[in-house]
Structures are given as C-alpha cells and as structure tokens.
Amino acid sequence: MNIGIDKIGFYTPHLYVETKELAVARNIDPGKFTVGIGQEKMSVPPITQDAVSLAANAAHEILTEEDKQQIDFVIFATESGIDHSKAGAVYVHELLGINSNARSIEVKEACYGATAGIQIAKGHIALNPDSKVLILGSDIARYGLNTGGEVTQGAGAVAIVMSTDPSIMTLESPSTYQTEDIMDFWRPIFSDKAFVDGKQSVDKYLSFFQDIWKVHKQKTELELKDFEAICFHLPYTKMGQKALKAVIPEGTEADQERLLANFETSKQYNKIVGNIYTGSLYLSLLSLLELNTNIEAGARIGLFSYGSGAVGEFFSGILQPNYKDALHTAQHETLLAERKEISVAEYEEVFEDIVPAGEPTIELPVENDPAPICFSGVKDHMRQYVRKDG
Ligand code: CAA
C-alpha cells in the first residue's frame, strides 16, 4: 500500500524583521546573522496569532469539503501549546469544520513532534486505508530579546494531509530513530521563552544525524547516490548545511554537487521565515518541492528530523508523478511577498505584547491582522478564535 503526503499547506504571520537590522541594533556584524547563522528575515507573530491560529491558517488554504469529510484524525504537534490539558487539535478541528467522527490529539517532543505525527498517521492509514489524516506542526520560537538564540526566532505552521496513493510523496520504510535524555533545549512550564545550551544543541544535532545516518545506511543499504536531496530540520539554515557537510565526502563529485545545490533550494523559505520548530523540516521540504526546477517524479528525498531533549529520525519518500500540480506554490509566493517589514524597535514592542498570564478576559485587535483566522482574546479563561471569512 502506498501511503504518504497528499497536500502541504503553510502559514506565517504578516510581520518580519530583517536580521541585518537586528544585528546592527545588537552591535553585531550583520555577516554573522546572514552568513554565519544563515538567516535573512525573522517572522514576528502579532498577539493575535498563536500556535492554534497559525495551524488553522496553514490547513485552511488546502482543505476541500471532501478532505474535511475524509479526515478522521487530527494530530497537532507543537512546543508552543496553549493549554496543559486540551489539545490544540480540537480547536483546529472546530475552526475548520472537520467531520465530527475524528480523533484529535496533541503530541510533544520539541521539534520532532510533527515527524511523530507523520509516523503515527502512516500506521493509522495502513489500518484504515480510506482515512485521511491532518498533521499540523505549529510553533512560535521565542528565546528573548538580546539572547544568543534571538536571531533564530520565527513563527509559522505547516499542515500536511496524508492518505493512500498520495499526490506528492509516498513514504518509505524502514525509518531510523534514536532517543537520548539530554538538556540541550527545553522550556519549563512557567516560562514563555526557551532555555538553551546553544553549543550542546548544535553538537547533539550533528551527532544524532551522523549516528542515525550510519544505522540507516546499514538497515536499508541506501547511500548518498540514492538521494536526489536531503532535507533537514532547520533551526537556522547553517545548521542543516553543517550536517550535510559532515556526510557529503562519502559521495562522488556529482552526488556532492547535486545534494549541495538541492540543499540551497530547500533552505530558501526557512531563511526568510526563521525557526518554526515542529514545522521547520516540512517547510524545508516545501521549499525544495515548490522552488526546484529540475527534480523529477521518482526521485528519493531524505528527511532528517531532530527534536531537542532529544529524539531524531531519518526517513525518506519518493516523489509522485505531477507532484508539482498538488502544491500551492503561487499562494505561498503571495503570502511571503505581502509580508510587512517592521523595525527592530517595533519588533521589540510586538515581542513584549503578550496576553498577561491569568488574565480572565481580554479582547484583541484582530482588525490589525490580515490572517483569515485569528486568536481574538480570552473570555472567562477560555481562548477565543475568529474566522473572518465566516
Ligand atoms: N561573518 C560571517 N560569519 C560569522 C561572523 C561574521 N562576521 N561572525 C561569526 N560568524 C560565524 C561563526 O564563525 C559561526 O560559524 P560556524 O558555526 O560555522 O562556526 C557562526 O557565525 C555562529 O557563530 P557563534 O557560534 O559564535 O554563534 P552564537 O554562539 O552566538 O550562537 C547558536 C549560535 C548557538 C546557534 C545560537 O543562535 C542559539 O543558541 N540558537 C538556538 C538554539 C539552536 O537553534 N540550536 C540548533 C540545534 S537544536 C535544534 O535544532 C532544535 C531547535 O529547533 C531549537
């Protein structure tokens, strides 16, 4: 049975700051942010976007009425959850009008969550071939003003529909995964910002990739020559480049050229959006699929997922005939082009403008946010959302 990715949606807020402006404000050489880190723009979420509204906006653009009837499982992956008990998936299920005979859950393991969702969905569809599953990876990356991680912040969501005989990519088995209990990045319950041991996080990402890649090659007998491209979880684009460069000497000159060129394509969206945690690997896949001009159906794409804490996984997929027709490239081009640049001072103001913890009732200015779906406030401690298109 062929199971895989049938549709991919994406949403990022309408505001961004240029990282070279951020560097100047922080008294840092702009080259460190644009070349050393490899980030050009950083998405800035207004108070009217949270993990739920970002996810709902990402899915909203791709779901037909038929999809909504066929989806019987909504898996919401996030590390920016809005409630310790209720799943973000339940809100999205309601906002999008998905059939009531569906399961809706939230999964968590840092940036790895959406990959867990994809593998759970694969098993679910194998048992229920008529089913479609909606997987959401939605996050707001917050490290704090004037921190080492600040330039790697971002916000956005990716929505993936999985089914049998998918239009975009079938997923191969087996995949290779690994867990190790480490403290490279975490967010204690009380904090709205991540804690991070930056150097350890980079070292662990690299050692996870190299260890997993080694086991994967033994398990599958696949080598670099068998991959048209490898997409990476991209907390910042230089991270994926470091990982690729660690294994690339294994390939021929042609393999190296192909993988490096396709990596360039796969980082374009991430470079101008920032880290979106759970969605970052899939944003990179989307960048590769939408922006390449020469990758043909039948090509094998490798995917490396890493969630601090830590869990990693490597798996692969095969592109399907006419996969480009199933993409929403023009909408994403418009979404990214219509964003508004804000100054560092404005970004700092937006960053500090958060709903005060414990505030029972608050109304938010959704009229300032062009998104179709917004977080509109809190009523008796219950979060409220609005769909502007009715
Ligand atoms: N021009 C060009 N390059 C320059 C430069 C200049 N003027 N100045 C410095 N650089 C280069 C450095 O040489 C360095 O390059 P290499 O990494 O190739 O050596 C690069 O810029 C970064 O410099 P530093 O290592 O000094 O940067 P830093 O210590 O300030 O912080 C960071 C880097 C640790 C990644 C920090 O941004 C951070 O903590 N980020 C958040 C954590 C993170 O993203 N970790 C990634 C792995 S964990 C993960 O993947 C999960 C997740 O999503 C969080």
CATH topology of the largest domain: Peroxisomal Thiolase, Chain A, domain 1
Radius of gyration: 20 Å
Fraction in helix:
25-40%
How many DSSP helices? 13
End-to-end CA span:
38 Å
User: Low-confidence parts, pLDDT < 50 over ≥5 residues?
Assistant: none
The CATH architecture classification of the largest domain is 3-Layer(aba) Sandwich
The top-level CATH class of the largest domain is Alpha Beta
**Shape verdict:** globular
Give the structural class. Answer: alpha+beta
Biggest sheet character: 10 strands, mixed
Description:
By secondary structure, the protein is an alpha+beta fold. It folds into 2 domains: 226 residues, Thiolase/Chalcone synthase (Peroxisomal Thiolase, Chain A, domain 1, 3-Layer(aba) Sandwich), CATH 3.40.47; 155 residues, 3-Layer(aba) Sandwich (Peroxisomal Thiolase, Chain A, domain 1). 35% of the residues lie in helices and 25% in strands. The strands form 4 sheets. Strands 1, 4, 5, 6, 7, 8, 9, 12, 13 and 14 form a 10-stranded mixed β-sheet that branches. Strand 4, helix 5 and strand 5 form a beta-alpha-beta unit. Helix 1 packs across helix 2, helix 7 crosses helix 8 and helix 9 packs across helix 11. The mean pLDDT is 98. It binds acetoacetyl-coenzyme A. Acetoacetyl-coenzyme A binds next to helix 2, helix 7 and helix 8.
